[in-house]
Write a structure and sequence with these properties.
The chain is α/β, with parallel strands linked by helices. The protein has one domain (61-220): Cobalamin biosynthesis CobH/CbiC, precorrin-8X methylmutase (Rossmann fold). 46% of the residues lie in helices and 10% in strands. It has helices spanning 24-41, 46-58, 73-82, 92-97, 115-121, 125-132, 148-159, 177-186, 201-220, and strands at 67-70, 87-89, 107-109, 141-144, 166-169, 191-194. A six-stranded mixed sheet has the order 1-6-5-4-2-3, with helices on both faces. It is globular, with a radius of gyration of 17 Å.
Length: 225
């Protein structure tokens, strides 16, 4: 378990919410999946909750052991959501999967920006998109579930002084995926990442949505809770 794990109060154990499940059957499937994940992964911290959800997202409990947390990413992300900070996703699939209920953060897609820059420099559209969005990076929640090149670019921007609130980086593949996430973990920025070549959009979305669920639970908690 992460050395930076933090106590979740009463958000584990028997407590369960899923704002994305909008039918009784959907909620029951989600609840049973979480029950199995709690038993397999553990349920002591908020980081455990993210591990559970990411394992469920890929149907493999081994994913829980690949997740890495650096510099208090959950607390940083919750604070950013409270401030309505933007969520910057690498591709539309990530943006589509991110829960829109219960927060006021706008979700932007890097792929929708920087086309001229990509053509001019011959770089990937997602890299160019994050370069075009550089002025919005400070304080933002960055969620990269696919493109190693985009994560490399975000890391470079951080090295040059940009300060996102948190970076969720689960880029996937055999070219620069492991390297981009290893680089992210060397930076003084709150981050959630996966070790090695595995990861992908489902993992990034699951991590982001579990943080949003935590945010909803804390927003609805009473003063004495």
């Amino acid at each position: 378990m992460s050395k930076e794990s933090s106590r979740p109060g009463d958000t584990t154990g028997n407590t369960y919410t899923d704002p994305g499940a909008d039918t009784p059957e959907g909620y029951e499937i989600s609840r049973r999946s979480r029950m199995l994940a709690r038993a397999a992964v553990g349920d002591e911290t908020v980081e455990d909750r993210i591990r559970q959800r990411c394992a469920i997202a890929v149907g493999d409990f081994a994913m829980a052991d690949l997740l890495r947390f650096r510099h208090g990413p959950v607390a940083a992300a919750l604070m950013a959501l409270d401030q309505g900070a933007p969520i910057l996703a690498d591709i539309r699939m990530v943006a589509t999967g991110i829960q829109k209920k219960g927060h006021r953060s706008r979700v932007c897609v890097a792929l929708d920006y920087g086309k001229a820059l990509a053509d001019e420099r011959g770089i990937t559209r997602t890299s160019a998109g994050f370069l075009d969005l550089a002025s919005r990076l400070d304080g933002a929640l960055v969620v990269i579930g696919n493109a190693p090149s985009a994560l490399m670019t975000v890391c470079s921007l951080v090295q040059n002084g940009k300060k996102p609130a948190v970076v969720i980086g689960t880029s996937v593949g055999f070219v620069n995926a492991a390297e981009s996430k290893a680089l992210l973990r060397t930076l003084e920025v709150p981050s959630i990442s996966t070790e090695g070549t595995r990861g992908g959009t489902p993992v990034a979305v699951a991590a982001a949505n579990e943080i949003i669920t935590l945010f909803l639970e804390r927003s609805h908690a009473g003063p004495g809770d």
